[in-house]
Amino acid sequence: MTSTENRESANARSTRQRSSALLTDKYELTMLEAALADGSAHRQCAFEVFTRRLPNERRYGVVAGTARVLAAVQDFVFTEEQLEDLDFLNEQTLEYLRTYRFTGQIDGYREGELYFPNSPILSVRGTFAECVILETVILSILNSDSAVASAAARMVTAAAGRSIIEMGSRRTHEYAAVTAARAAYLAGFDATSNLEAARRYGIPASGTAAHAWTLLHVDDNGMPDEKAAFQAQIDALGVGTVLLVDTFDIAQGVKNAVEVAGPELGGVRIDSGDLGVLTREVRAQLDELGATKTKIVVSSDLDEFTIAALRSEPVDTFGVGTSVVTGSDAPTAGLVYKLVEVEGHPVAKRARGKASQGGAKAAVRLCRATGTAVEELTYPFGGEEPASNGFTTRALTVPLIRDGELVDNLPTLQESRDYLAAQLVTLPWEGLALTRDEPALTVRHISQ
Amino acid sequence: MTSTENRESANARSTRQRSSALLTDKYELTMLEAALADGSAHRQCAFEVFTRRLPNERRYGVVAGTARVLAAVQDFVFTEEQLEDLDFLNEQTLEYLRTYRFTGQIDGYREGELYFPNSPILSVRGTFAECVILETVILSILNSDSAVASAAARMVTAAAGRSIIEMGSRRTHEYAAVTAARAAYLAGFDATSNLEAARRYGIPASGTAAHAWTLLHVDDNGMPDEKAAFQAQIDALGVGTVLLVDTFDIAQGVKNAVEVAGPELGGVRIDSGDLGVLTREVRAQLDELGATKTKIVVSSDLDEFTIAALRSEPVDTFGVGTSVVTGSDAPTAGLVYKLVEVEGHPVAKRARGKASQGGAKAAVRLCRATGTAVEELTYPFGGEEPASNGFTTRALTVPLIRDGELVDNLPTLQESRDYLAAQLVTLPWEGLALTRDEPALTVRHISQ
């Protein structure tokens, strides 16, 4: 390794989270202790991440968080300070953790790939000990990021090419806000309000102004002066800025905005009321005032359904907050991490309602010549790809970590974003519908 | 300051998050820039945190995250590296941020206090500039923590004194998991599965075993050996451990568990199936086998409603995952941060559906002699407490930050937990019901 590579690697590490090792449920470490004691810790195992169903009868899910999972696995290293706090463990277990590095194999779906019930999204292979303790951090990341991306992709579809901005940081945990911005961008959002996400992931940052800005501008008698607020914003940020026009009266707000800015005003934002009616009225008013190129930005508890309902209205940009960062009524993706293979033997829980297919699996998607996806097939990991029956096949399972090291040429966030956009058009057309129904594709297991 | 104090302060800081300053929406900094340019940045303002309604027609909310907000305000300091990335700001704004420290006043409800629509949960006073840029980080923390605590308190009530454990880390963002554990503990949960929460906040950590543990124990032919798994767990963790008995057949699992552990077995966990029927069957079976003190732990998508439905069943411990960390269908508390006063003048947005009461406010709660709460009154901040009409009054608004510094003797997490437990019993009895209805108390504004 050259010294340049060393420096780059150190830089990459310094921008990551600190040790991820305590983002872990206690039972993983007590199972580890029991497994070290009876020797089962060293059995070769495969764990698999999948979901049994899609939330709210959606048609598809979007894999998100893969790059963050890989970083967390690399950062899964216990510090001495952390080990001191794990006083419920014996010395054998602490010694194992002291030198712990994941040295196994991880394969899985690309970030931005579509998934369905029983898609084997991630396959983690190695000793029981090294795999079992990664459960929580892997699931936390994939469940939160995939929940956001899966909802966000539906919103992007509903927006039908109009600009769509994520602005939900204030409605979710302060660090979940950062990764939600990333997941929404992956899913096709154009920008985020969140500055840490902009810095960390290179996502375009965007923003307008709050009602507080207008309310701040009172005269000496405490009477509101909307024009003074607009004037100050334009003086500071230029005439291309977006003015928030619904603090007092929207028609008056639009009038004031164009009076102050002139017809070159960049945009107006409406954050309350019946947005369908209002956008038509505001568009007519702007056009009448000669501000024909001034854009209309709407926000106010939008989700994929209200966005779709506004599709025929003169909206230029959708600002989406709460619903995207909370997964639009599905704040977690329902992914699980299950042991599926021990020393080459498939294993599976048999309790009612939670049965799963044993054995490590890989997957392919079958497509027509037109590119439309038809079905997803899983088959034993390392086995032969199933017969394609005249369809074209695409391998869904790709290598991510080999012997504990990241594989080369993992995709960038931008590449994963482009990848998802290309995948969405492969769905059968009804698969993009917002209504509740069966998954757009079925996943069928082919034993060999 | 003595050197001991210096060291303690440094220790306190090192256990906190890094700079919180970029957990911020872009528009706050562009508003700051415009305000610095036109001089309005220095106007004395009051911002207030409140909600317009409770989610899902719940009866009350629980304030959570206050201590984390105060830490984030203390840590709201821009590093040179962060400032370099803010290349959309001019030099005047960057210079302001370079020396930024919040030097104003924060008052608010105690952590663990109950709240209702229009309760003034937090009041932030200072210049427009120093207050406006705190919006996102304050709301992110209060919205996520209060969402979890508000749901968790209902689950604790439903559990009616039975033990209740938070184990939802795998279903939410990896750092939201840590603070969700804190919020659930505040609300009366007994323990968490999350090790980072245990370390950071001193919350008891708890855990049993996963299905993977049982599945790991296959013989050389790949046939399951549940008894070997149970034996190894007991050898390592003692007979007081909790064995997961539903991997294959529950009745056989219970039989195997008692055969291996004897009647002193600590507990069995059931994670699937119809928990009402199953717990009765398992209790009868355990009793018949002489394991009369062996406890029954249930998990499997529990929420406050399913917990309540199990109240008459022989459950000893509830393990709650997804629903508590996602706020049980309300993943955000809907709190907003609004400018309510400028240079002593009350200000308020007038757009339809989002009107709010202007002016900085404090609040008191009126109670009967029995302690039962009757009503909440708000009044102008700094004004005289409203007449009590023969009720006892309790001040809800307490000082939190004075001139940028934390006030002395802020409550510990344990004290806030005890405080909430005491507050819940002051609600009118119907206020603890799980059904949808009006808020348990109304909040009325008294002008002066």
Structural commentary:
2 copies of one chain form a homodimer. Chain A is of the alpha/beta class and 448 residues long. Chain A has 2 domains: 3-148 and 330-445, nicotinate phosphoribosyltransferase, CATH 3.20.140.10; 151-325, Aldolase class I (TIM Barrel, Alpha-Beta Barrel). Chain A has 16 helices and 19 strands. In chain A, strands 13-12-1-5-3-17-18 form a 7-stranded antiparallel sheet. In chain A, strands 7-6-11-10-9-8 form a 6-stranded parallel sheet. In chain A, strands 16-14-15-19 form a 4-stranded mixed sheet, with no helix packed on it. In chain A, helix 12 runs parallel beside helix 13. The radius of gyration of chain A is 25 Å and the shape is globular. The two termini of chain A are 42 Å apart. The model of chain A is unreliable at 1-17 (pLDDT under 50). At the A-B interface, helix 2, helix 7, helix 8, helix 9 and helix 10 of A face helix 2, helix 7, helix 8, helix 9 and helix 10 of B.
Q: What are its keywords?
A:
homodimer, TIM Barrel, disordered N terminus, 448 residues, 2 domains
Question: Would you spell out the secondary-structure blueprint of this structure?
Answer:
The structure is a homodimer of 448-residue chains.
Chain A: H1 3-14, H2 26-38, E1 44-51, E2 61-62, H3 66-74, H4 80-85, H5 91-98, E3 105-108, E4 114-115, E5 122-127, H6 128-132, H7 135-159, E6 163-166, H8 176-186, E7 191-192, H9 195-201, H10 211-216, H11 226-237, E8 242-244, H12 250-261, E9 267-270, H13 275-288, E10 295-298, H14 304-309, E11 317-320, H15 322-325, E12 335-342, E13 345-346, E14 361-367, E15 373-380, E16 392-395, E17 398-402, E18 405-406, H16 413-424, E19 443-445
Parallel strand pairs in A: 6-7, 6-11, 8-9, 9-10, 10-11, 15-19
Antiparallel strand pairs in A: 1-5, 1-12, 2-4, 3-5, 3-17, 12-13, 14-15, 14-16, 17-18
